[in-house]
Automatic annotation (TrEMBL):
GO terms for biological process: proteasome-mediated ubiquitin-dependent protein catabolic process; protein deubiquitination; regulation of proteasomal protein catabolic process. Residues 908-925 have a biased composition (Polar residues). This is ubiquitinyl hydrolase 1. Its EC number is 3.4.19.12. Pfam families: RPT (PF13446), UCH (PF00443). Residues 1-71, 113-150, 894-1033 are annotated as: Disordered. Keywords: Coiled coil, Hydrolase, Protease, Thiol protease, Ubl conjugation pathway.
Length: 1375
């Protein structure tokens, strides 16, 4: 390498100029003079400063205050603390700037930041009456920054305030600007060229290889081979970047096409003139005013041709640009151009106006520094060809060369070809078949493209021997022609770029090239990263070392705005606060966005385990007191106001929502806060904050005024009670009376009192008070109307809460609801007239048997009543609908029970149904006795509206008969899903009721029975006579044994009613509806113990409508309960047999019954289990299918067996009647050790030690069992986590509330499908409310309100449409 001086010097950053630069800097003060005595000797240093600091001499002398001696220093002296007088401030420090600057105005507007009243305050409030900060910003209190305006920052949302200041918009800090100027992963180099000492070839060679007008490149040619003095080479692009920075009062020449955006104008020039540079103490005469630069970008703002020196591309570069522009024309929409523009030279009009290169401009808003940068100026050869050539040589090295040497040799060959042409005048062609050429370069498509870009001509030649060969001829470089000059400059630029590329490659692979003798390269590379970093204030010496800061390497993530912080890979916490405040100062409109990013960085620091500095914490708290909010806060505010499809308003928030609607939403939110006695105050603050945030985010002055007026003049409920001088517990009637008295006493306060009463009306949501204020009359109690689209409730007939829940459940099933609708208007007479032959009855079997004429009549009558009820639920305007007595009796009493009652009352068998008996008995089910014979409709206790909503009689004076208890008993013996659900078959074992009384159609409807009341001695005792006069529904209801039979009875009758016994149509059209919806098919496999029984394995298939889960133990979920049912041990032929059940076909509706009635073998009494069974919104039935993976089934069975054993052992240790055992052992030990009267020889030290250790052993075992249970459960669920094909969604949950298995209250939840699956309705008899999802899925441990029936619908089956209501009166056929 030649180390002689290069032809191009490394450019240095421009030095800042100052009007006072001519002044001589004062000499440094010697230590002896400063201390007035001889100090200890200092270590000698070659340079002033240290390895981490440097001394910057001030450009101007410091200001002189008063007369001083000739000595260049001032002696230290004590200063007496005296009150500060109102002496005038020295002229060198303007009095209108509290931020350390002479002026803080922007665009010629004076800021009011530092007026005489703006003194620093130390009060606790964020702002005092004069509007100043709580504590000043300084070197220790906060970042150094000037130019801020308090009023503008407070009203950042107000466009009129922003228009006054005309801020320049978002900016960037120097470290990030350094990355914007060029890719931080790329290196820029300053390239300087040495004059090669090649000698031209002799002109006597053959074929005229040497050009007659040959001239080698001059020094000027070498200098101009670089695009611009401020152009720097990038190897990664094989191109150049024009980069220039300068401190100047004059802006660079702007392009004619550049039009500044009104939203981001240029910074105030007057303010920029006051500061030469933000970095460097010598340029800040009155102390540092800003911690760093703050640059603003103006894209394509500077015309490169107007620079000094100008940048103009070479002719060959411009021709390449023109080709690219022609290609862009093909993308224009020529059809959109009018025909008259295509006349003449229309294409020239279509092409954009040609302009020189446009450069991006970055201007610091705080000083006179600016920076301009170009896009990458491409080199002669596209970088893709250079990289491809390098890859080829790397993958196919020459013989005897390694990969690196092969690459270098190839690039040196390209340089040799150009050097021979430019400096030696060699113009002869190069034969590509020569061995040397093939070994060093080769002839590939990439090599050919490179030579074609250089202008080499590819041609076939004939050798003297007559053989055909291929050669490439270099382009003409005659300087006397335009083409020759262009070709020469092009080759020279290629030579410089390839030399720079090669030199950087040799540096990177120096170790691999130690054995290779590299050819001489005539260029020199100097990295310029530090140089331009120093120029723009991004060098670490200007930030970290100058301030004593520590670099941090957190990477909080992509959510941090790159427009605020230095870089995502490396940024400094001390610059963070300055960056945030600078962005808010220059772009106040985006203040919430900047605070969001600032706050996210603080949170990220904490997540990385570090603690933000005290300054950053103080700044966050300070900004919070100024009502700064994040994007999440804004979304939360929108939710607080009730916006969202799943929220109260059912409307998503949009920016164009009417302001009046927003005010209404806010006022509704205030009302809800007033009505909350517990958290009302907090909710009120949240509502006001939410409204303020939304108002600011919309930039609405009107909404802000509404809020200010409310906060100034509003009356909250507590204040309203004070104004009216009444306690909060006063009811509405008394409140109106007191209001009238107050008006009489203080008529001048009428408006104030009316406002207070209106506030209380809204807080109480009292229609009565509102009406009173509007009309002046007390309207009495007002029942608010229910929405038309809201589901209706069902009134109780007396302890029929379970039936109400069941009927509401049936109504949510769309296909069932539609199927029974046509039977709504069927008359009893029409049903009586229907005749069925024996052949008709044999057409269908229900529940595995034939049905009777009586059952057909009852079923159709029941479904007709059910259809009428459904119609009322759809169209009724009332809050609740009352079912008919016939419907309740037919639902709760089976046909078999009815026949038994008739047989006992008549003494005849009424089951022999013929056409004659149907006609004779038509009065019995069709007509009921007068229900007024008893206080209760059902002959039981009247329902007390004020009592708890539990259907049980707490009075010991009114014991209920067994028949009455059976009317609402808890599920004590549920029907097994492994058998048929026919009420005829199931009721055979449940008809042994102890109450044997006559039916009311004889006791209440027939005259002879009524006449028998006169003969008192001949009649039964009084209780029996009262029973005879009670409505027949009492006895009929008394025959119902459990709630499962009620559901079976209803489904049985629905199925019969929908069957077609006439034979005129397809009997399967509707007859299978119940089976299609509710019934599936399962396979049972019974395997006896072969050691105790010779019975073989039996297997069969059967239908099921319920899956039972035995709820005897706590700590299980729905999968655990089902697993016990699908694999269980049963008694069989005096031994045990394993019953394995699997599902063959799944129904659309999966009903899972939680069997809570358990039997206590010690007390021999049934009891209700309150254990919590966990379930979710979705259940997957894949693991229970007959087609499930047998290997998974076997593994699951092993895990489940171990899990059950662990749970049983844990239950024994923690829930046994003698548990917990620890206190028992401790008591035993105390008793034995303190026993003095009896000698216990067995009580030795070993026994005492065992008793002491036993407690720890038990505790250790309990903890181990719990850990095993959790692990096994996770292992089990992980086994089936991918089996999610057969998914069922929770649709209904039936609840029993009560502690007794015989009495209690029933209600149920239904999911609002299909439109609003996240909403639930709670059906509690006549009351229907919206219930939260969390309430449905809540843990019921410790509560006596527990789920006992879960209904799941097959995902995607669309069988449940919860609500069917008329949405307007126009849809009601009655109107």
């Amino acid at each position: 390498m030649d180390h002689s001086d290069p032809a191009r010097r490394l450019p240095s950053p421009p030095q800042p100029t100052s009007s006072a630069s001519a002044s001589k800097a004062p000499s440094t003060v010697s230590p002896s003079s400063f201390y007035a005595s001889k100090p200890p000797p200092l270590p000698s240093r070659k340079n002033v400063g240290s390895s981490h600091t440097k001394v910057v001499q001030p450009g101007t002398p410091p200001p002189v205050y008063g007369s001083m001696d000739a000595s260049p220093f001032r002696e230290p002296q004590l200063v007496e603390e005296t009150p500060i007088t109102n002496d005038p401030i020295p002229g060198l420090l303007p009095a209108d700037d509290a931020w350390g600057q002479a002026d803080s105005s922007w665009a010629g507007t004076q800021a009011t930041w530092g007026t005489s009243t703006d003194t620093w305050s130390t009060d606790a409030t964020p702002w005092d009456s004069t509007g100043t900060w709580t504590q000043p910003y300084g070197a220790s209190q906060g970042p150094i920054i000037d130019g801020r305006d308090k009023s503008e920052e407070d009203h950042w949302w107000d466009a009129s305030v922003r228009d006054i200041h005309k801020r320049p918009g978002p900016g960037v800090l120097p470290p990030y600007l350094a990355d914007l100027l060029h890719n931080p992963d790329h290196s820029l180099f300053s390239v300087s060229v040495n004059q090669p000492d090649f000698k031209p070839l002799a002109s006597s060679q053959e074929s005229g290889e040497v050009c007659q007008s040959f001239q080698p490149p001059s020094v000027d040619d070498l200098n101009y081979s670089i695009p611009h003095p401020n152009a720097y080479y990038c190897r990664k692009h094989n191109g150049w970047v024009l980069l220039q920075w300068k401190s100047s009062m004059i802006m660079p020449p702007l392009a004619k096409s550049f039009v500044p955006d009104p939203e981001t104008p240029f910074p105030d020039l007057a303010r920029r003139k006051r500061m030469t540079s933000c970095v460097g103490g010598g340029e800040q005469h009155f102390g540092q005013a800003n911690l760093s630069h703050h640059f603003h970008r103006y894209e394509k703002a500077v015309d490169a041709l107007k620079l000094d020196p100008a940048f103009r591309r070479s002719e060959w570069e411009m021709s390449v640009q023109k080709k690219q522009k022609r290609r862009k024309v093909t993308s224009l929409d020529l059809d959109a151009i009018s025909l008259h523009r295509m006349e003449g030279n229309a294409m020239e009009d279509v092409l954009p106006e040609e302009e020189d290169d446009l450069l991006d401009l970055y201007v610091c808003c705080q000083c006179s520094l600016y920076c301009i940068v170009s896009e990458v100026i491409p080199g002669v050869i596209p970088v893709k060809y250079i990289e491809e050539f390098t890859r080829e040589r790397w993958d196919n090295p020459a013989i005897g060369r390694n990969k690196e040497e092969s690459v270098v040799s190839g690039l040196e060959t390209f340089l040799l070809v150009v050097e021979n042409k430019l400096w030696k005048g060699q113009h002869r062609g190069i034969t590509i078949s020569r061995p040397v050429f093939q070994r060093k370069i080769g002839w590939t498509p990439v090599v050919r493209c490179i030579f074609e870009h250089l202008g080499f001509i590819y041609a076939e030649t004939v050798t003297p021997a007559g053989e055909r060969d291929t050669s490439i001829t270099p382009p003409i470089t005659d300087p006397s022609t335009l083409e020759g000059r262009q070709n020469g400059r092009k080759l020279l630029r290629f030579w410089v770029e390839t030399s720079a590329w090669l030199l950087d490659y040799q540096r990177r692979y120096a170790n691999a090239l130690k054995q290779y003798t590299c050819a001489r390269v005539w260029v020199k590379l100097d990295p310029v990263r530090e140089m331009y970093q120093m120029g723009i204030g991004a060098h670490p010496d200007q930030t970290i070392r100058a301030l004593g800061l520590t670099p941090m390497t957190y990477s909080p993530g992509a959510s941090i705005s790159s427009m605020i912080y230095s870089t995502l890979k490396r940024w400094y916490l001390e610059l963070l606060a300055f960056a945030y405040l600078a962005q808010c100062r220059c772009d106040p409109k985006q203040t919430p966005h900047y605070f969001t990013q600032f706050y996210s960085v603080i949170q990220a620091i904490q997540q990385y385990g570090d603690l933000p500095s005290q300054e950053l914490q103080n700044l966050v708290l300070q900004e919070r007191t100024r009502n700064r909010y994040t994007d999440d806060d804004r979304l939360g505010a929108i939710r607080v106001l009730g916006f969202g499809k799943d929220n109260l308003l059912r409307v998503d928030y949009e920016d164009d929502i009417d302001e009046d609607f927003l005010v209404g939403a806010w006022k509704d939110c205030l009302k809800r806060a007033w009505r909350d006695p517990k958290d009302g105050a907090q909710r009120l603050r949240d509502a006001n904050d939410a409204f303020r945030i939304v108002a600011e985010s919309r930039g609405s002055v009107n909404l802000q005024k509404v809020l200010e007026d409310f906060l100034r003049d509003s009356i909250d409920p507590s204040r309203a009670y004070t104004i009216l001088e009444i306690p909060p517990e006063t009811d509405d009637a008394m409140l109106m009376t007191v209001f009238m008295l107050r008006l009489d006493e203080q008529p001048q306060q009428a408006e104030r009192m009316k406002e207070a009463l209106l506030t209380l009306a809204e807080a109480r949501d009292s229609c009565r008070l509102r009406t009173f204020l509007e009309t002046g009359q007390d309207p009495g109690e007002i029942v608010p109307a229910m929405r038309l689209d809201f589901p209706r409730g069902l009134n109780q007939l007396g302890n029929t809460c379970y039936l109400n829940s069941l009927l509401q459940y049936f109504y949510t099933i769309k296909e069932l609801r539609d199927a029974v609708a046509p039977l709504a208007k069927m008359s009893v007479k029409a049903l009586e007239d229907e005749k069925y032959s024996d052949d008709d009855l044999k057409r269908h079997r229900v529940g595995g048997r034939l049905v009777t004429r009586r059952e057909i009549f009852r079923s159709k009558k029941f479904v007709s009543q059910l259809a009428n009820l459904f119609w009322n639920l759809e169209h009724a305007e009332e809050v609740a609908v009352t079912p008919t007595m016939d419907l309740a009796k037919l639902a709760l009493v089976t046909s078999r029970d009815e026949e038994d009652d008739e047989a006992e009352s008549r003494g005849t068998d009424s089951s022999n149904d013929t056409d004659a008996t149907l006609v004779d008995d038509s009065q019995s089910p069709g007509r009921l006795a007068n229900a007024d014979a008893s206080d209760s409709v059902l002959g039981k206790r009247a329902r007390d509206d004020n009592a708890m909503d539990v259907d049980e009689d707490a009075s010991p004076k009114s014991p209920m008969s067994d028949s009455e208890k059976n009317g609402y008993v808890m599920v004590s013996h549920p029907s097994s899903p492994r058998r048929s659900k026919s009420p005829r078959l199931d009721s055979a074992g449940s008809s042994n009721s102890s109450s044997k009384s006559t039916s009311s159609k004889q006791a209440g409807a027939k005259e002879p029975v009524q006449q028998g009341d006169d003969d008192v001695p001949a009649q039964p005792p009084l209780p029996e006579r009262k029973t005879q006069t009670t409505s027949d529904s009492v006895m009929l209801f008394g025959k119902q044994h459990d709630v499962s039979e009620c559901m079976d009875n209803c489904m049985f009758q629905i199925e019969i009613a929908l069957l077609n016994f006439s034979g005129l149509s397809d009997p399967q059209e509707k007859g299978s509806l119940v089976k299609r919806l509710f019934y599936g098919k399962l396979r049972q496999r019974l395997t006896p113990d072969q050691r105790k029984s010779r019975a073989s394995v039996t297997e069969k298939q059967d239908l099921f409508s319920h899956l039972p889960v035995n709820v005897s133990d706590s700590g299980i979920d729905i999968y655990d309960g089902l697993s016990r049912y699908f694999d269980d041990l049963v008694d069989y032929e005096g031994g045990k047999a394993r019953m394995e059940v699997s599902l063959v076909e799944l129904p659309p509706l999966m009903q899972i019954q939680l069997q809570r009635v358990q039997f206590n073998r010690e007390t021999l009494q049934p009891y209700k289990s309150q254990a919590y069974v966990k379930f979710g919104k979705t259940i997957y039935m894949d693991r229970f299918l007959d087609s499930a993976d047998p290997h998974k089934k076997a593994k699951s069975k092993r895990i489940q067996t171990t899990l059950i054993a662990r749970r049983e052992r844990l239950r024994l240790l923690t829930e046994h009647k003698h548990a917990p055992f620890g206190p028992c052992l401790d008591s035993t030990l105390n008793f034995l050790t303190k026993q003095e009267n009896v000698v216990l020889p067995q009580l030795d030290d070993e026994l005492v030690a065992q008793l002491n250790n036993e407690q720890q052993v038990i505790q250790s075992e309990v903890e181990g069992l719990r850990e095993d249970i959790v692990r096994l459960k996770e292992e089990l669920e992980d086994l089936w986590k991918d089996d999610t094909t057969f998914a069922y969604e929770l649709t209904s949950v039936f609840i029993h509330r009560g502690s007794s298995p015989s009495f209690g209250h029933y209600f149920f939840y239904s999911r609002n499908l299909p439109d609003k699956p996240d909403e639930w309705f709670k059906y509690n008899d006549s009351t229907v409310t919206e219930g939260p999802k969390d309430e449905v899925l809540a843990d019921t441990t410790g509560s006596n309100a527990n789920p006992y029936l879960l209904v799941f619908a097959r995902k995607g089956s669309d069988v449940v449409h919860t609500v069917k209501r008329i949405t307007s009166l126009a849809e009601d056929p009655k109107t």
